[in-house]
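Same chain as my last thread, 192 residues:
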Amino acid sequence: MKGTFIFFADGFEEVEALATLDILRRGGVDVKSVSIYDNSLVEGAHGQQLITDLCWEDMEEIISDEASPSDYMIFPGGMPGAKNLSEYEPLMDLLRSHWAAGGGVAAICASPAVVLAGLGNTFSGCEMTCYDGFEPALAAAGIKHKAAGSVIDGRLVTGRGPGYAPEFALDILACIKDRDVANAVAAGFTPR
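reply #2:
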C-alpha cells in the first residue's frame, strides 16, 4: 500500500490520533485519516467526534501489494479503540501484507500490545514501547520492551501514551521525511 494512513475506530485516544495527524501534515506528509467503518464518522474515547478523510470502502480501491519504508500504517491507542482496530480482520490482513512488503508501521499506547502483538510472531524480535501495564502482551509475542516515550526500530515506531504523542509523531515524521524536517516542525512548538 502506497502512502501514509492513520486508522480510526470508535474509542480512539484523541490526543494520540490528532497530534499525530497534525504534526505529520505540518511536516508535509500527505497523511489520510481512515475509518474502519462504512462511514467516516468515528467517536473518540472521550466523546470527541471526527469525520475521517476516507472510510474502509475507499481503502479497498487503494490497497496494493506495494510498499516502501516511507509508506506508513499508523494506529492510535485508546480503549476500546485499539481493540476495535485489532478485531477488524481486513485491516489486520492489510497490516500483515504491508509489513511483509517492507512498509512502515507506527502504533502508540495500547496499540503496540493490542494491535501489533496481537498478530502473533509478525513483530517477534522487534523493540517497542507501549502504555504502562500492557508489557506482558509484548513479551508473549516475542517483542522486546523498552521503557521510553517513543521507540524507533527500523521501519517500526511505537509510542508510550498520550503524553508522548508529539514525540511519537515527530519520530514518524523523521522516518518518512528526515530528522531535519521533524526538528523544524518541533521548533514551531517551542516558546521563543
